[in-house]
Amino acid sequence: MSHPDLPSSGILAGRVWLPKIGPAVVKLEGDKLVDVTKSFATMRDLCEEKNPAKVLKAAKGKVIGKVADVLANAAEKKRKKNKPWLLSPIDLQAVKAAGVTFAASMLERVIEERTRGDASAAASVRGTINDLVGGDLRAIKPGSDKAAALKAALIKANAWSQYLEVGIGPDAEIFTKAPVLSSVAHNMEVGIHPKSSWNNPEPEIVMVVSSTGKIVGATLGNDVNLRDFEGRSALLLGKAKDNNASASLGPFIRFFDKSFSLDDVRKSELAMKVSGKDGFVMEGHSNMALISRDPQEIVANAINEHHQYPDGLVVYLGTMFAPTDDRGEKGKGFTHHVGDVVEISTPLLGVLRNRVVYTNKAPKWNFGLADFMRNIAKRKLL
To answer: How far apart are CA 102 and CA 116, in angstroms?
Structure first.
């Protein structure tokens, strides 16, 4: 590939908005994007193929432009509306996410719960929780006899938590991150609620899954999180997670083929950089080798005989990145400022870049399922 935001190799597909036409499924060929919508009316249809990488590579279509121009045209305020722009790479898939899948983030969720979302109390509670839990949680397999024994000991010490339950218990936390078609793309804005005073990005690898439960590829995701809302009550998880422009994905889906597999995901490392308008810079890493549940196990918790998704789904795998360094007042840790630029990257999948705004200032989501179905029906793609 010839663009710095994209991996150097692989079979990549995405979605683009074509002015006066509508959404199109595209594939990357060199430095150009090719419209393959006549072969795959939706990204869902492509992901349902037996071998998406193979059929995508063989698909023919019309070149719509250079990938650099389309990526640069995604930001709404700078957009040339007579030119194509990038969309989130998924369409009809459900948007699901797994929580508490790394030991570090597991403890941070416990801290949120104990402080009731008060960032100023986090530092002292963090030390207390670490003393109570002790040992290396990464060595404990969720659902194992060792995990059950630790649970019994923590209950006896009055230190058990609902977050430890999903972190080391038999059942993974799986929640709905966003409505179908609401996710935003690379170079677009992501939203934080204006009433939130403690929030952060969550850099994650996202599994792309067919209706049969087969993992067909991966992309990058930012599971934007309001720590204070969830800390006040776990019943506010929906409000902490599902807001306007709170789920970003992209830039493209990389499908599994001979050069890219689930084992590559398991060994990958994510880098994240947050750059503020105030000169603040924060960097961190998330190593997938430290995940407490295997990606295949997480996906199996999301789609199974009890949970069907006829249009497939994507699953955010969770993050070990829980920033604790102070930004501003001592002891209050990190929180976003409007204007922050978040970059999530790995050589396998490229770079996902978004700028932070308030949720009520982000571009309105106004192209839903009814609009989508009418559009592709009008274009005789069905």
So the answer is: 21
Q: How far apart are CA 4 and CA 29, in angstroms?
A: 15
Residue 135 confidence (pLDDT): 57
CA dihedral 233, 306, 97, 93 (to 10 degrees): -130
239-288 residue pLDDT tens? 999 999 999 999 999 999 999 999 999 999 999 999 999 999 999 888 89
Q: Give the whole-angstrom CA distance, residue 48 versus residue 32.
A: 25
Residue found by looking up tokens 């402080």 in the block: 115
- The backbone torsions φ and ψ at residue 60, rounded to the nearest 5 degrees and listed phi first, read -110, 155
Residue 110 to residues 94, 146, 327, Cα–Cα distance (Å): 28, 20, 21
Residue type, 302: A
Which positions ≥6 away from 349 have C-beta within 8 Å?
Answer: 7, 205, 218, 219, 220, 254
Question: Distance (Å, rounded) from C-alpha 54 to C-alpha 362?
Answer: 37
**What are 74's two structure tokens?**
């995604």
Residue 125, pLDDT score: 63
Separation between Cα atoms, residue 252 and residue 15, nearest integer Å? 8
The answer to whether residue 326 scores a pLDDT higher than 90 is no
Closest CA to 232 of 223, 243, 240, 224: 240
Rounded CA-CA distance 363/8 in Å is: 31
- Give the pLDDT score at 340: 97
Other C-beta atoms lying within 10 Å of the C-beta of residue 85 = 23
Which residues have a Cβ under 8 Å from the Cβ of 55 and sit 6 or more positions away?
Answer: 39, 46, 49
Rounded to 10 degrees, what is the CA torsion of 273, 279, 280, 283? Answer: 20
In the structure encoding, which two tokens stand for residue 53, read together? Answer: 């990488």
Question: Quick one: CA torsion of 365, 371, 375, 378, rounded to 10 degrees?
Answer: -160
Query: How large a percentage of the chain has pLDDT more than 70?
Result: 88
Cα–Cα distance between 290 and 102 in angstroms, integer? 7
Q: Give DSSP secondary structure letters for 67-122.
A: HHHHHHT-SGGG--TTS-EEE-S-SSSEEEEEES-SHHHHHHHHHHHHHTT-GGGH
